[in-house]
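Preliminary data (for renewal application), pyridoxal-5'-phosphate complex.
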Amino acid sequence: MIKQSVTQILSELPDGVELVAAAKTRKPEEVLEVIEAGVKIIGENYIQEAESAYAVVGNRAKWHFIGHLQRNKVKKAVKIFDMIETVDSIEIAQEIDKRCAQIGKVMPILIEINSGREKQKTGVYPENAEPLIKDISALQNTRLMGLMTMGPRFGNPEDSRPYFVETRKLFEGIKELNLPNIEMRYLSMGMTNAYKIALGEGANIVRIGSKIFGERAYERS
Ligand SMILES: *Cc1c(COP(=O)(O)O)cnc(C)c1O
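Predicted structure:
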């Protein structure tokens, strides 16, 4: 089941697009199974789950943090993760920078864009991305490499398109600024429901959970 869905998704992804298997609520054994099926990157939302999975899987995969990162968890996060996709404030970026400096690491980061401008959700509003990125570009131990967005959840995936389009335009606009110390390379958009739409709008990282692992028994968010 896992093997089949991974094989199918990988065979359909265009060249240059990276698949992140979103592993929230899954057991370390399931994470191992997706890696054996060919997944190279695991996405984790919770530090505790990531630590359990990392203890089993280690460096057989790359690790992307895709949840909401709290300041007091950054020290643990920088040890495990190869990329943090959800930076949305200068405070969290500075903390990542500080903790990375202490262990001699430079952390690739993405800015999370709240493309639906939903009050209850994390991420910066599109209009606030540029000033944040300028501030972050001064940090030495983080490397800004692109944008990530979730977008509002819809029954009809087509309804997600405008949010992906807006995020891509923002991505292109920031790329054209040619700011120092940043390298706009990744656009992380699209989950099980709408990843095909996201691919059509320029995503080169897709984060897929339920289509790989099956429906989640319970939702945390
Ligand atoms: C859960 C989650 C996903 C995957 O969602 P599915 O609908 O299960 O594919 C992707 N990105 C983030 C940030 C998530 O929290």
